[in-house]
Amino acid sequence: MFFIYRVLYFLALLVIVPVEYFKRPKGLRRSWFLERTGRYPVVLSRKAAPSDKTPTVWIHAVSVGETITAISLIRRIIAEITPNIILSTVTDTGRQTAKEKLPDGVEVIYVPFDTLSAVRRAIKAINPAVFIVMETELWPCIFKEMRRENIPVVILNGRISEKSFEGYKKIRFFMKGVLRTVTLFGMQSAQYSERIIAMGADKASVKTLGNFKFDTAPSPVIPPWALRLSHPVLIIGSTHEKEEAIVLSAVKRLMASIGGLSVVLAPRHPRRFDEAGAILKSLDIPFVRRSEITDAPASFVLLDTIGELASVYGVGDVCVMGGSFVPRGGHNLLEPAFWGKPIVCGPHMENFPMVGEFIAAHAAVATDAGRLYEVLFELLSNEAKRVEMGKRASELYQRNSGAISNAIRELKTIIGI
Predict the structure, then answer these.
(1) DSSP-based helix, strand, coil % in the chain, nearest 5
(2) What are the tens digits of pLDDT across the range 115-132?
(3) Does the reported pTM lie above 0.85?
C-alpha cells in the first residue's frame, strides 16, 4: 500500500508542482522548489555538525493557524530544551507569519515533498533529535524515514475532525501502518484521543495533553474606548457572511427592550467591514466604527480594526461566538472564557469540540437563530446567572490550562533531557 501511495503522490506532484511554482513571485520560486525537494541552505547543515551537542528540534506547522499556535511552545523549547529550532510550513502565508512572529534564531523552511529522496535530503541537512507535527498532518514518507533513522515523531495539539475521522476510517488498513511510526500523539481532548486510536494508533502512544489555545492568553489590557461602554455590553465576535443578518435581527429587538445596552460587532474578515456597515444601515441600527471613535461613548460599535477582539471580550457581559450560526465551524470560545464571560453559541461549533464540556458545565449556552433573542434577553437581564456562568467558564479555562507544560515534559523525556 505504501508503494501505491508513493506512485499516486508522485503523479499528483507532476500536476501540482508547475502550478504551485508559477503562482509564486519570481523571487520566491527558486527557494520554494529547492527547499521542497529537500535542498536547504548551508546554515542548516551547520546546525547538524557533530561538534554541536545541542539537539535540533524540527517543528512542522502547515499554515498560519498552526504557526501561531506553535509560538508559545517554541519559546518554551528554547528556554528549557534547546535554542536550535527549525520550523517548516507548507504555505507562503505560514512562512511569512513565522518569519514575523517567531523569536530570532528560529530557522523557517518549506517542508519537503513527501518523497523518499526529498525527505532523506532534508533529514541529512537538519539532523533533528525529534520531529514535531502541530495538530494532525500525516506524512507517510516523512514518518517512515524518521522511524528508519530512529528519530522520534511527535504529534502535538493533535485533533481529528469528524469529517477527517470518517475519511481515515475507510483506509484504516493503510493509516494503521503510518500511525504506528509515531512515538507520541499529544491530543487536545479525550475525544480526539479515542479517534486516533480507532484509526489504528497504538493506545500506549496516545496521551491527552490538552489544547495549546488554553495557554494562549489575550492581552490583559482592555482598550480605553471599550471601558467607556455602558453596561450591559454584548460582544458579537468573528461573524461571517450572512451571519450578521441572523444575529442583528435579535440584537435590534434587544436594543429596544433593554435600556442602556451596548453592542460590539466584530466581523471575522477585514474585507467585510464595509459590508457589515451596510447591513447595519439597512436595519436602521445607528453605529460608530471603532476607527472613528472619539471621546464620546457609543452604544453600537462596529469593530473595524485587527487584533483587539480578544481583549475587548474583557468588557463584555455576554459574548456571542461568530461562525456558529452559519456552517463555518465556530470560533475560539476560549478567548471570552479567559475573561470569565458567559458564552452563547449557535449550532455550528464543530471546530471546537470542547464546547460540549462548556455547555455541560453551564459555562456556555447553545441555541439557534429562532431562540437567540430569548437566550440573550434572559442572560442580559439576569446578572446573577451571568456571573455564575462566567465563573464556570473561567474555572474550566484554568482547569484545562497547562497543555504546553505537559508537552514540554513529554519532549524532555523523549529527547532524554
Answers:
(1) 50, 15, 35
(2) 999 999 999 999 999 999
(3) no
Residue 180 carries which side chain, given as an amino acid letter? Answer: R
Distance CA 138, CA 182 (A): 10
Closest among 88, 81, 100 to 40, alpha carbons compared: 88
Distance in angstroms (rounded) separating the CA atoms of residues 133 and 70: 10
Look up residue 157 and give its amino acid.
N
pLDDT in tens, 216-244: 678 889 999 999 999 999 999 999 999 99
List CB contacts of 153: < 8 A, sequence separation 6 or more: 130, 131, 133, 142, 143, 146, 147, 181, 182, 183
Nearest alpha-carbon partner for 220 in 303, 310, 301:
310
Is 112 within 8 Å of 40 (Cβ atoms)?
Answer: no
Q: What is the largest CA-CA distance in the chain?
A: 73
Please list, residue by residue across 88-120, b when 16 or more beta carbons sit within 10 angstroms of its beta carbon and e when fewer do: bbbebebbebbeeebeeebbbbbbbbbbeebbb
Tell me yes or no: is domain 20-210+402-415 CATH 3.40.50.11720.
Answer: yes
The CATH superfamily label for domain 224-399 reads Glycogen Phosphorylase B; (3.40.50.2000)
Please say whether the beta carbons of 55 and 81 come within 8 A.
yes
CA angle 354, 324, 368 (to 5 degrees): 105
